[in-house]
Write a structure and sequence with these properties.
The complex is a heterodimer of chains A (564) and B (102). Helix content of chain A is 70%, strand content 4%. Chain A has 564 residues and is mostly helical. Chain A folds into 3 domains: 236 residues, no CATH class; 243 residues, no CATH class; 54 residues, no CATH class. In chain A, helix 5 packs antiparallel against helix 6, helix 7 runs antiparallel to helix 10 and helix 13 packs antiparallel against helix 17. Chain B is 47% helix and 3% strand. Classes of the chains: A mainly alpha (564), B mainly alpha (102). At the A-B interface, helix 11, helix 16, helix 19 and strand 4 of A face helix 1, helix 2 and strand 1 of B.
Chain lengths: 564, 102
């Protein structure tokens, strides 16, 4: 093992996550706030190139391989862990906090990894951490959503693993570098990455799972999985043309489904897919401007989307769990700070001038313009207006204004307000002073977002989108509905088909006396032997224990292969 | 003066305040007069930004950009199209939110 570091910055959060359940009270709060800051300090010590390696089988793994792009993503992941931790200080379920920190640490691990095996290891740790965050919602719906989420991500992990093995066999290299989709191996890797972006056809995992997490869990979930996927696309598949059209699909999918949605956190979840679509388009265009655009957009998006979900989480926390637009409205009267934070987040996601979204997302639009991709540019401009429609106005309007629900909850406790104030400040500060953000980008840039023409264009586009919203308000009235998605195939069709097959088989078997008297009874006896109250398979063990041991085994494995 | 003769209301008599759903005085931001003013201000703002757009003449790479008030009409028209498309999609795919709980 060679290293300029004592441990990888990612390990600070991953190891720290296991300390959180051990301490209580102020010590836990201090740890929750300190761990991300120490991690951030360590990330900023990472220079360019390989900084830390270790031996695994015949391969030399590069645990830390620094670059502008990797530091940018690792930095925002650490900032997110800090603000998310601050927001979640009142969260009594320490398992959620531990899982969220292990999840954040794994995302940082992906961002700093220099080889495809390390990427895969952290990728799977992320899947486990995020599944536990969803499961920590502690409702039956959260448990079911966590299981579906785990299945989709484990499937994605298997596809990725197939690609990784084939890639190593093909090339003999484990370097994680620009590869392009030009072989079976790289296509498998690309598909594995795309599943985590929320790309079609499996987009539904995101709006299915994220809203079922707790008031604080969704804030963490919004940041890491999709943005690490954007990072790996930028490293491995920049300039891959098909990504442009996948991204365009994601952009409009997010808008259309969000327009039909009633649950405020599902609206924001669809909106994540919409925003990640812009980044995938940027990765597909692949020019320096486009990669800068996608990277800076990921940075700002993590902040304003977390801010939006913090304001939604505050509403849930203070109203005892209300999350449907049909149950909300008029909350601005008693939650002024939460309302202002929600509006700032909404303006930032809409790329309103003087917010962070304006100085980041517009770089992708500019890249499409500069490369004279007229259809793509027109799609991006329409989508920019559509973002204001579905997230910029719809979310704050239906939650904080519209009809008066009569609810008068107060603003949340100080730590939740502090997290919202911090991210609101960053949304505006980065919008007004984009220089520090631009200095962190992968390529040097002299992009000037604040030209008169650009400001006037965006103001026209957004304000007329606002006019469309209020003119069409009768069509936007919310109902107690959901919109069917691709998950219908595995949540409804597959379940109903399995049930009807089971009924048919049991009818057939029931008609045969010999089968009933012998085979069926033998199966029942065998089942009874194992499942009787003293049978080994009848012991009641909570699912959480199983997940805990899975994490322990994986963690032990990670430690063994790194240090032994 | 007879007892049933009504006394005229003084000119400075206050109107009964508008009440919200809880019976408390309505917040100033949601009173009908405020909403009317917001609409008027909004329309004036829309006209202003459209006019602002005509004061700059950037180099237009695509022909469609040169059309009068492009960003205004394009923003409005595409949003209307997206809402209508979403409603049409909803006709086929919207289900009660308890659909998967059965």
């Amino acid at each position: 093992m060679t290293s300029d570091f004592l441990i990888s910055p990612s390990f600070i959060l991953i190891f720290g996550a296991f300390l959180l359940p051990v301490v209580r009270g102020w010590a836990r709060s201090a740890l929750v706030l300190a761990l991300p800051l120490i991690t951030l300090g360590a990330i900023w010590q990472v220079g360019d190139g390989v900084q830390m390696t270790t031996q695994f089988l015949d391969y030399e793994l590069e645990l830390i391989d620094g670059s502008n792009l990797s530091r940018l993503f690792a930095t925002i992941f650490a900032i997110m862990a800090f603000a998310g931790g601050l927001f979640a200080l009142n969260q009594k379920n320490v398992i959620e906090l531990s899982a969220a920190f292990a999840y954040a640490g794994s995302a940082i691990g992906v961002a700093l990894a220099g080889d495809i095996i390390t990427v895969f290891m952290y990728w799977e740790l992320m899947a486990i951490g995020s599944t536990m965050v969803v499961w920590s919602g502690r409702t039956p719906a959260a448990g079911r959503a966590a299981m579906r989420y785990a299945l989709v991500h484990l499937f994605g992990g298997v596809v990725l693993l197939v690609g990784v093995i084939a890639y190593i066999q093909d090339t003999g290299s484990i370097d994680f570098t620009l590869m392009g989709a030009n072989s079976f191996a790289t296509w498998m890797i690309l598909i594995g990455f795309l599943i985590n972006t929320g790309a079609p056809p499996l987009s539904a995992w995101l709006p299915d799972a994220y809203p079922e997490a707790s008031w604080s869990g969704t804030v963490f979930l919004s940041a890491f999985t999709t943005k690490t996927a954007v990072y790996v696309l930028l490293v491995g598949f920049a300039g891959e043309q098909i990504l442009i059209w996948i991204g365009v699909y994601m952009i409009f999918y997010g808008i259309v489904y969000a327009l039909l949605e009633n649950d405020m956190r599902r609206i924001l979840s669809y909106s994540i897919i919409n925003q990640v679509g812009f980044m995938v388009v940027g990765a597909g265009i692949g020019t320096e401007m486009a990669i800068n655009g996608a990277a800076s957009h990921a940075f700002t998006h993590i902040i304003y989307k977390a801010l939006l979900l913090m304001s939604a989480g505050s509403v849930i926390y203070m109203t005892g769990g209300k999350r449907k637009c049909t149950d909300l409205g008029g909350l601005f009267q008693s939650m002024p700070l939460t309302t202002i934070a929600g509006i700032i987040g909404a303006l930032a996601i809409s790329s309103f001038p003087w917010t962070s979204g304006f100085v980041s997302k517009s770089m992708t639009n500019q890249a499409a313009y500069d490369t004279e991709m007229m259809v793509v540019w027109l799609c991006l401009m329409a989508a920019s207006a559509g973002v204001f429609l579905h997230a910029g106005i719809k979310f704050p309007w239906f939650v904080f204004f519209q009809k008066d629900s009569g609810l008068r909850p107060k603003d949340p406790p100080w730590n939740m307000k502090a997290a919202m104030v911090l991210f609101s400040f960053l949304c505006i500060w980065m919008g007004v002073q984009p220089g520090p953000l631009y200095a962190l980008l992968p390529f040097p840039t002299d992009y000037q977002p604040y030209t008169s023409a650009h400001v006037y264009e965006m103001l026209q586009l957004l304000l007329y989108a606002g006019l469309a919203f209020f003119v069409l308000l009768p069509l936007m009235k919310r109902k107690l509905t959901i919109t069917l998605d691709f998950d219908w195939f595995y949540r409804k069709l597959a379940v109903d088909s399995a049930a009807s097959i089971a009924v048919t088989i049991s009818k057939l078997l029931g008609g045969c006396v010999w089968v009933r008297d012998n085979l069926v009874n033998a199966v029942i006896d065998l089942a009874s032997h194992h499942h009787n109250p003293k049978g080994i398979l009848a012991r009641t063990t909570p699912a959480g224990v199983m997940m805990f041991w899975v994490v322990v085994v994986l963690f032990a494995y990670l430690v063994l292969y790194l240090f032994v | 003066m007879s007892d049933d003769k009504k006394t005229p209301e003084p000119h400075n008599a206050k109107k009964a305040p508008l009440l919200d759903i809880n019976g408390a005085p309505m917040h100033w931001l949601v009173r009908p007069t405020t909403i009317k003013l917001l609409w008027l201000g909004g329309i004036a703002l829309l006209a202003f930004v459209t006019w602002l757009g005509t004061t700059v003449h950037p180099h237009a790479t695509f022909g469609i950009e040169g059309t009068l008030g492009f960003y205004s009409w394009y923003g409005f028209a595409t949003c209307v199209a997206m809402v209508i498309f979403a409603k049409l999609l909803g006709l086929g795919l919207s289900k009660k939110d308890t659909y998967y709980d059965k």
